[in-house]
UniProtKB/TrEMBL annotation:
Upper lineage: Bacteria, Bacillati, Bacillota, Bacilli, Bacillales
Protein family (similarity comment): Belongs to the D-isomer specific 2-hydroxyacid dehydrogenase family.
PANTHER family for this protein: 2-HYDROXYACID DEHYDROGENASE-RELATED, GLYOXYLATE_HYDROXYPYRUVATE REDUCTASE B
Name of the protein this chain belongs to: D-glycerate dehydrogenase
Natural source organism: Jeotgalibacillus marinus
Enzyme Commission number(s): 1.1.1.-
Key words, A-Z: Oxidoreductase
Amino acid sequence: MKKVFITRKIDDRVIHELKQHFSVEVWPHEDKPVPREELLRQAKTAHALMTMLSDKVDAELFNHAPELKIVANLAVGYDNIDVKEATERGVTISNTPDVLTGTTADLTFSLLMAVARRIVEASEYIKNGEWQSWSPYLLAGSDIHHKTIGIIGMGSIGEAVAKRAKGFDMDVLYHTRSRKREAEEAFGAKHVSLDDLLSQSDFVVCLAPLTAETKGMLSTEQFAKMQKGAFLINAGRGPVVDENALFAALQNGEIAGAGLDVFENEPISKDHPLLSLPNVVAAPHIGSASRATRYTMMELCAENITNVLNGKDAVTAVRA
Ligand code: DGY
């Protein structure tokens, strides 16, 4: 029987389904990543791996895995995987696009709203017993409606964010390698240079994937181009933003606030200076984390594994 190794405790229903056809081993913890040695040990006899974005899938792992046919990553992003190396070795890599688009766009927009309207600060204020009276500027924040949103990385999640923005009567700018005519027609989105996006947006929303070109693309120079009252939302990948530069920009009042779902190092340390700022709303990489969507993502991974181990194509294979 072919062997599937799953690097985190996932939904029992999906494990049960896979067990009908394969021998399945699961790292038994939901909240602790599989140690590297255990992953390499399991990979030795595995025909398929279901991995998380916290697992590094590289040449060393492939060297340990002579039987490996597919790595199904439980995420749309796959910067944790050396896809080129996999392709050279004939290992299929799959991800989970589309099924998480709406959920991740919801979270992205929630961060935008939370930081602009100071929702987390407001909640803490009440819970700490600080509310003495109504007052005109109490926790006054920034408007969202009729403002300008600039989306960096206009993939399907970017388009879904643009759709939400349109419902708030926002003007939509975007910066991406190739133009998205459908988004232009549907949401009046305007394709602009990065500099124009930074200088014209009230909300800069970063959804760019992590690549050699995007690493550190938002740094001191870019924050200096943003408006003083503008906000940065990052729900793509942490290393696209230079966190030291972001901290400096926030502290010096060069920008008004940040909503962050992703970080340079995850999990971010609770002592990280960014987390000490009241105008930072932080979430632990939960973009696609609704119960329904995570289940659908797991099912899609299982389908990709089943297909490939039965000699068929993965439904959502990634190309190098
Ligand atoms: C992904 O799927 O890449 C997201 O970052 C998960 O929330």
